[in-house]
Structure formats: C-alpha cells, structure tokens
Design goal:
CATH topology of the largest domain: Umud Fragment, subunit A
Shape: globular
Helix content: 10-25%
Order of helices and strands: HHHHEEHEEEHEEEEE
CATH class of the largest domain: Mainly Beta
Radius of gyration: 19 Å
Oligomer: single chain
Mean pLDDT: 83
CATH architecture of the largest domain: Ribbon
Number of strands: 10
Distance between the termini: 31 Å
Largest sheet: 10 strands, mixed
Number of helices: 6
Number of domains: 2
Low-confidence stretches: 64-68
CATH superfamily of the largest domain: Umud Fragment, subunit A
Length: 230
C-alpha cells in the first residue's frame, strides 16, 4: 500500500544545510507543529504546499512523485471527528489528536495529491440525500477542499463537510451539507426527514458577521459502512 508519496523527498531535503522544519513552516505558511505532523506521516502536503516546499528547497519535485495513484491502490486517511448537524463541541487539540485513528481507503484517482480525511456520521441530517443517503453510523471519506479548490470550484450539488466555529474559536460544529449556489448567496442544505435541520445561508456581503465563521473543509467522495455480522 502506498503512503505519502512525498515523504522521502521531503525528509531528504530537510537534511540539507540551512534547511529546517521551522524554516519550511515559515516559507509555506504553516505552523511548525503541522510540518512535524507531515514529517511523521500524519498529514499530507497539498499540491500548493508541495510547490512552495520545492521553492524553499530549491529542488524540483521528482517526476515520479507527481504520478497518479495506480488503479486499485489504497491511501491512508485520519478519522478526525464526528459530523453532526447542530452539535457544537469544545475544541481540544490534545484530545483530538489522542482520539484520532488511521484507516485505509481506495485512492482517489481524480485528486491524487489531495489530503484525505474521514469523519464518523451521527444524526439524521442527510438521511434523504439522493441517490444515496448518508446515515448515522456511516463513515465518510473526503478530500481537503483547500487542496482541490483551484481545480474544482464550488458548484451546485456538491456534498461537503462544513465547519462552523463560534465563541472565539472554542466551539466547533462539523456537518455534512449539499451546496446550492445563487447569484447573491450560497446555501448549504441538509437533506433530511427531520424538519429541525435548517440550511446555512452565506450571503455575498463579506461584512456580515454574526459571530460564527463558516468554511467548507471537505469534499465528500465516499461513504463507508460495514454490514454487522449479527
């Protein structure tokens, strides 16, 4: 199974004189802790970060590293948390890191260089999504949207993971929604039999601020569920 295809290249270049994790972090605009996770195989570089890393090292990215994943290959994904509409949880980075597990999913041939992450599904906010509902107990695999935004603009019908943050960043909700785009707004809709779930509306007025920030963090690519043995 193929892991992070850039890791050997990255580690080897970090051994060069004058190069360091902290210097790389400053150059590509990441926290030093994030670069440490990359070096330890817990996080992948996005395509833009990879290009910035090549600029920092002054070394080309080996052509072999740019090839698409072979058909049938697997890639690792970290289960980062639970998606559940309407549920804000306290952000605790130490607890998040401790509880996360790594799984393997089929490699995404459309986005071979994007980071992959997974979420466990709770609640019924997408139980009427067509053609396939997303149900409690499912696990979804996503690509990080910031890694693919330059080649995959937002469009109607996309199923995405939405992050809402409030209380100065201390409380966070992750949920799955389906995108509808209008001239003056974007609407992130639940597809549910439960009327309590409401859409999130994002106006074009960038000055509007109700104390809650909204960001699309993942593009849902796969739904996973095991059949119970009994």
């Amino acid at each position: 199974m193929r892991g992070n295809p850039y890791l050997d290249w990255l580690i080897e270049n970090l051994k060069a004189p004058g190069k360091s994790q902290s210097g790389l972090a400053r150059h590509i605009g990441l926290q030093a802790s994030m670069v440490n996770k990359i070096v330890n195989g817990k996080r992948k570089l996005s395509s833009k970060e990879l290009a910035d890393a090549a600029s920092y090292f002054g070394q080309p990215i080996p052509q072999a590293e740019l090839e698409h994943s072979a058909p049938g290959s697997m890639t690792s994904a970290v289960v980062v948390g639970v998606v559940e509409a309407g549920t804000f949880r306290e952000v605790d980075e130490l607890a998040d890191d401790y509880e996360r597990v790594e799984i393997y999913v089929p490699a995404d041939d459309k986005f071979p260089n994007a980071r992959v992450m997974a979420f466990d599904v709770a609640g019924d906010s997408m139980n009427r999504l067509e053609p396939r509902p997303i149900l409690p107990g499912d696990r979804i695999a996503c690509v990080a949207y910031e890694d693919v935004a330059h080649i995959m603009p937002l469009r109607d019908g996309m199923v995405v993971v939405v992050e809402r943050v409030r209380a100065g960043g201390h409380m966070r909700e992750w949920s799955v929604k389906q995108l509808e785009i209008y001239d003056d707004r974007q609407e992130l809709h639940p597809r549910s039999s439960n009327p309590k779930h409401k859409p999130i509306v994002i106006d074009r007025d960038l000055d509007a601020d109700d104390g809650t920030s909204v960001e699309i963090v993942g593009l849902v690519r796969r739904v996973i569920n095991d059949i119970p043995l009994s």
